[in-house]
Amino acid sequence: MSLTSFSPSWSDTTAMAAAARFLLRTAGSKASITNVNSCVHSKLGLTPLRVSPSCIPHAKTQKRHAAHFTFQPDPVSTKYGPMQKMNLFQSVTSALDNTLASDPTAVIFGEDVAFGGVFRCTVGLRDKYGKDRVFNTPLCEQGIVGFGIGLAVAGATAIAEIQFADYIFPAFDQIVNEAAKYRYRSGNLFDCGNLTIRAPWGCVGHGSLYHSQSPEAFFAHCPGIKVVIPRGPVQAKGLLLSCIADKNPCIFFEPKILYRAAVDQVPVEPYQIPLSQAEVLQEGSDVTLVAWGTQVHVIREVAAMAQEKLGVSCEVVDLQTILPWDTETVCKSVVKTGRLLISHEAPVTGGFAAEISSTVQEECFLNLEAPIARVCGRRTSWTSEFSISPPIRLNLILSQYMLTTEIARRLFRMH
Amino acid sequence: MAAFRVLRKFCGIRYNVICQNKGLNDFSRHFQYREFRINGVLCQQTLDSSTERPQFPGACADFVDRLEFIQPNVISGIPVYRVMNRQGQIINPSEDPQLPKEMVVNFYQKMTLLNTMDRILYESQRQGRISFYATNFGEEGTHIGSAAALDPNDLVFGQYREVGVLMYRGFPLELFMAQCHANADDLGKGRQMPVHYGSKDLNFVTISSTLATQIPQAAGAAYTMKRENSNRAVICYFGEGAASEGDAHAGFNFSATLECPIIFFCRNNGYAISTPTREQYRGDGIAARGPGYGIMTIRVDGNDVFAVYNATKEARRRAVTENQPFLIEAMTYRVGHHSTSDDSLAYRSVDEVNYWDKQDHPISRLRNYMTGRGWWGEEEEQAWRKESQEQVMQALEYAERQPKPQIELLFTDVYQELPPHLEKQKQAMWRHLKQYKEHYPLSIYEK
């Protein structure tokens, strides 16, 4: 599949209606955050949610013809030596290249991996490192993961590719019952910690039901594995190298909409970004926004929008590792801000936001100024933007408008 | 060796079915197995529309002009290779592996020791002393025959009814007992149900309850060994029921396409819990699937320890030298119940079980062989029975006296490190245990 961004017509969605209602209801002077904090239930006069071009450049037409987010590159840091401009799939290739160069036991395999992969993540590696190290497997996900476990048990570094996260389910048993429990059930006699499973993940616009899913929550229920999702090329390389080096089986979900859309200056040499550590991308004082993968870029825009229009100062947190996740960073932030909004693409019911919400409620109950808000996918399947009814199209987009509306309505009771 | 000949014969059948057009009727020509595999199945010739031969990339065959479906059993049943008849006499002397007396006596002692351990642990479960057990009755020949044919460095992926393999490799009775009692000596730290053994030192990967998951894993491990060029092979055991799982298909197909030095060893014991083979598959057993995957295949009499030995030995030798998978289907019979949770009389007759127990049992066949050679008599039998029983009882009683594993071990090995959330849960558990210690049998755990 190609990676063209989708272009939903914003104006005819229910979400637009919700945003419009919000705009109508809110009027008058800009609320100061002091007011919001001290008068949670009062009816505040608020500035209409009119977004300035500087805040969200592509939103000025009120129609979203491009992606539902603007990728925000990482600030350039030369900490790890020379940099090169890379998009996300190139940064993945770079990480794999570094691994194959330094670890003679490392092998990369999966469906169509040999010629470079359908998303081009393994381009050139077979020629460079040999066909016994970068190879195709038969079309069988349970086989790919099972084979990878065996490689790792026997001492190799196994990097398996599942062509789409949507197709990882045939391998669910191998991941959940086998990979995750290998070390525990053998009393540490055997393990498959050298296994990393990569899979393109998340919505891409035209992916419809089976090229759009974000199944991280299914795996988050499973002790023994790690689940990691990067937000951009710099993180993709650093986190993938950490997953490969980590002595536990890891699932590395790659936001496929970012493969080409996201471009960073990425260090050429190998480097690692620690697992199980969230990153605070923007400090704020009034509400904590948590997301991962593509949605990080959405909440970054939301933070700007909320500041601009609501006078709300948002702390933006990229969770990065879903399991085991960094409760400390999130809770510390919530203790400071008193409010939490979590957003993910996957359906809200049983989504990972539920776990975060529950933990934060347990840990930070007395610090909370408002109920925790989850703004996540609808309880339906994803579907294509083409030839679909407007209500279903909503699932494609967890927009900045919706999120900002939710911040105002749920977290600050601005009615 | 006859095993070799049978493999060759079978290969010939497959060869003729798949590649008749090659006109290679001389079997000796496709003894160059690597060439055979590559040229015979993956014939990617230059496209040429001038010849009246199919050019499809996915198959190598001739056109025919008569509508004819392939019969599922082109061959009238894959033959069962054996060395001894039911009376323990060598049928074809050239097939006799000519194993020395000590080795054969060791076979017999391991088979009977396993049988004794099974009886005692089965009874032990019945008395409520352990939680669960599954016997190996009737299948001892498949375990010992195959284990003896392997190199000790070969990695074993088992299902759960291959205890004899581990016993043959020297796993001590104390450790079998420790695992079944989940005591502090258990290498698995008391985490699994009984019979889920594992040993790093003996290259026996810890058993899991999930069926057939080990099959693609074994293929992956074999791939690692191929790359290491370490002269090691992998053997992967499973039952005919597990062979219905998708993972079995995955393992066969991956090992064939990725050319892995592996022996798939199917114990076809007639039943998957209660499901008989006629409700498990419709083809000619598991062996019939081998050719479909491009895997060298043989069917053996699993109650003939020498037949199993010969077939495994040859398959192992060739798997390593030629980097290709082999499939052995060992026909046998599960004389015991599936496990202590099962009463097999609900689905099979006493007569049927008695036939296999009394008239076609691997242990009695081997004993007949030994008696025929004058290597074993009633005196040795009595002495060994007494000794083996004492060994098992001693190990059992020792295991029962040992403490349970440390409570802390509940939290280790989930991850290589102890992540903060598990550390927190551990602290919470200790707080709870401290507060309510009188409600828990804390004294039975190792400190």
Automatic annotation (TrEMBL), chain A:
Cofactor(s) the protein requires to work: thiamine diphosphate
Key words of the record: Oxidoreductase
Reactions catalysed: N(6)-[(R)-lipoyl]-L-lysyl-[protein] + 3-methyl-2-oxobutanoate + H(+) = N(6)-[(R)-S(8)-2-methylpropanoyldihydrolipoyl]-L-lysyl-[protein] + CO2
Domain of life: Eukaryota
E.C. number(s) listed in UniProt: 1.2.4.4
Keyword Oxidoreductase: yes
Residue span(s) of domain Transketolase-like pyrimidine-binding: 86-261
Keyword set includes Oxidoreductase: yes
One Gene Ontology molecular-function label: branched-chain 2-oxo acid dehydrogenase activity
Pfam families: Transket_pyr, Transketolase_C
Enzyme class: oxidoreductase
GO biological process: branched-chain amino acid catabolic process; response to nutrient
Protein name as it appears in the record: 3-methyl-2-oxobutanoate dehydrogenase (2-methylpropanoyl-transferring)
TrEMBL record, chain B:
Subcellular location: Mitochondrion matrix
Listed EC numbers: 1.2.4.4
Classification lineage: Eukaryota, Metazoa, Chordata, Craniata, Vertebrata
PANTHER family: 2-OXOISOVALERATE DEHYDROGENASE SUBUNIT ALPHA, MITOCHONDRIAL (PTHR43380:SF1)
UniProt domain Dehydrogenase E1 component: residue ranges: 109-407
Cofactor dependence: thiamine diphosphate
Domain of life: Eukaryota
Enzyme class: oxidoreductase
Keywords attached to this entry: Metal-binding, Mitochondrion, Oxidoreductase, Potassium, Thiamine pyrophosphate, Transit peptide
Gene Ontology biological process terms in this record: branched-chain amino acid catabolic process
Molecular function GO labels: branched-chain 2-oxo acid dehydrogenase activity; metal ion binding
Family, similarity comment: Belongs to the BCKDHA family.
CDD domains found in the cross-reference section: TPP_E1_PDC_ADC_BCADC (cd02000)
Name under which the protein is recorded: 2-oxoisovalerate dehydrogenase subunit alpha
Any one annotated GO CC term: mitochondrial matrix
Subunit structure: Heterotetramer of 2 alpha/BCKDHA and 2 beta chains/BCKDHB that forms the branched-chain alpha-keto acid decarboxylase (E1) component of the BCKD complex. The branched-chain alpha-ketoacid dehydrogenase is a large complex composed of three major building blocks E1, E2 and E3. It is organized around E2, a 24-meric cubic core composed of DBT, to which are associated 6 to 12 copies of E1, and approximately 6 copies of the dehydrogenase E3, a DLD dimer. Interacts with PPM1K.
Subcellular location, principal: mitochondrion
Record's catalysed reaction(s): N(6)-[(R)-lipoyl]-L-lysyl-[protein] + 3-methyl-2-oxobutanoate + H(+) = N(6)-[(R)-S(8)-2-methylpropanoyldihydrolipoyl]-L-lysyl-[protein] + CO2
